[in-house]
Design a protein that fits this description.
This protein has three helices and no strands. By secondary structure, the chain is mainly α.
């Protein structure tokens, strides 16, 4: 795969390699792609939860803020015996 990078990205990669954090440009790019993939997966998870929440609201299956606070308080009391 051939990739053309902007001068700014090339400079950032060179700094990371020069610092010793990464052994090569390929290692630095692999780490960047791994982080991007993790971010995309996390974003997809958040989007899924938002969709689930919107569907619950549409069904009328939701709690008020006061109800949520009460649930959290009970859970806290159960967990810590307060």
């Amino acid at each position: 795969m051939n990739v053309t990078l902007s001068p700014e990205i090339e400079s950032a990669i060179a700094r990371l390699v020069k610092s010793g954090r990464y052994a090569s440009q390929a290692d630095a790019l692999a780490a960047a792609v791994k982080l991007l993939d993790e971010e995309e997966r996390a974003l997809a998870e958040v989007r899924g939860k938002l969709k689930d929440g919107a569907e619950a609201l549409d069904r009328g299956d939701a709690h008020t803020l006061t109800e949520v606070a009460d649930i959290l308080q009970r859970d806290h009391e159960d967990q810590f015996g307060l």
